Amino acid sequence: MPKPMSPIWHPFTQHALQHEMTKVVRADGAYLYTADGCRIVDAISSWWVVTHGHCHPHIVRAIQDQASKLNQVVFAGHTHDPAEEVAALLLKLAPQGLDYVFFSDSGSTSVEVALKMALGYWHNIGEQRIRIIVMQHSYHGDTVGAMSVGARGVFNASYGPLLFDVRSIPFPTKDREQATLDALESACRNEIPAAFIVEPLISGVGGMLMYPAWVLREMKRICEASDVLFIADEVMTGWGRTGTLFACEQANVTPDIVCYSKGITGGALPLAVTLCRADIFDAHYSKDRTRTFFHSSSYTANPVACAAAKANLDLWQDPEVRQRVASVAIMQEQAIEPFRADARFRNVRRLGTIAALDLITSDAGYLAEIAPKLQAFFRERNLLLRPLGNTIYVMPPYCVTAADLDEIYAGIREAAGVLA
Ligand code: PLP
User: Fold this and answer.
1) Which of 15, 155, 164, 375 has the most C-beta neighbours closer than 10 Å?
2) Residues 6+ apart with CB under 8 A from 289
3) Residue environment code for 325-337, b if the CB has 16+ CB neighbours within 10 A, otherwise e
4) What does pTM read for this prediction?
5) Which residues line ligand 1 (CB under 6 A)?
6) pLDDT digits (tens, 9 = 90+) for 29-82
7) Topology of 59-316 in CATH?
8) Domain boundaries of the chain, sorted by first residue
9) DSSP symbol at 337
10) What is the residue-wise DSSP string for 72-108?
11) How far is ligand 1, taken at its centre, from the CA of residue 244, in Å?
């Protein structure tokens, strides 16, 4: 078998099946430009991070300015304006009732931080609570804690023995929502868990599975009644994807702990935050140094990444951004509507700016044979789409045009004709 030409080991890439990587030299708005002169429509916002478009000038300028002033400083015992500004703005924009902001650098680490905050809280107030409740099909990242609270399957089978035990409740499929709520109620009552972690309104990697806001609201109510911490993982749903700035807004829910990452810098640089209620911070606030929150990474609150986040937050102050999100949602609905009558697809769905549909094939799941074929087919048509098994989804940057969407959905229709 030929070995790769490059020494780079790529993520979620089977090198024995994919020998060549697409070399990208430049990006602008909704497009990637390759070394061999192609313009690719980025229909998945480069793994769901790019919100306003690649290389947004306001964000680029903020990065350039900050990089020449202060580009890194240890964050233990030190602070800087970009981090302070981002924290203050976040607390204004996030659901009311969150009081503290902890910085980290990826969605997975923001989840690790959330879990450690929850466990640290119970430990420090003297209660033995360690069990985490999770939802079926969930995904929270690839570090060991984040994998433990995610669905068990092909992504983590090799590390199974290392993952900690969790209690899983069923996904709230249509007309079976009560079963989920009953399972949550029973898990909260019987196991005295530390926390429940959930992707609000949509499970992304699990297959773009959507559920209504009232279920999220009920889940929060159940946790509150049992004094179980409610952790919302808004790593994917944050920053307008579901139609509102944060998905929890639609359920009028304030989580006890919430994770934001991906679009926090508009997709320009890696950064994440975990926000929490004051009493979770307070449980760690003590002259006793053993109660310190022992978590950090070297680049915590990197000033350049924070400057990018501040620039992104500036953009969100402009009402035009929300109008843009609303119009992408409408454009997506118009584009996906004809597929509801197309017998080759099922579960045609949309939430805010995210649209998804399942191609009917003989196998399903992440390893469905069709997925790499679809991906290659789209690549040949200069479309960046990475189906999750037989689930094709479109999650574009908000600068996407109706013409781009026409191109994307024409590609999907053509793929069904050729490959299904
Ligand atoms: N949580 C959710 C809901 C996600 O969708 C993801 C990534 O897709 C993560 C956490 C992990 O984020 P990252 O890849 O930045 O570690």
Assistant:
1) 375
2) none
3) bbebbebbeebbe
4) 0.98
5) 106-108, 111, 139-141, 199, 204-205, 233, 235-236, 261
6) 999 999 999 999 999 999 999 999 999 999 999 999 999 999 999 999 999 999
7) Aspartate Aminotransferase; domain 2 (3.40.640)
8) 24-55+322-397+410-419, 59-316
9) G
10) ----TT---HHHHHHHHHHHHHSPTT--EEEEESSHH
11) 19
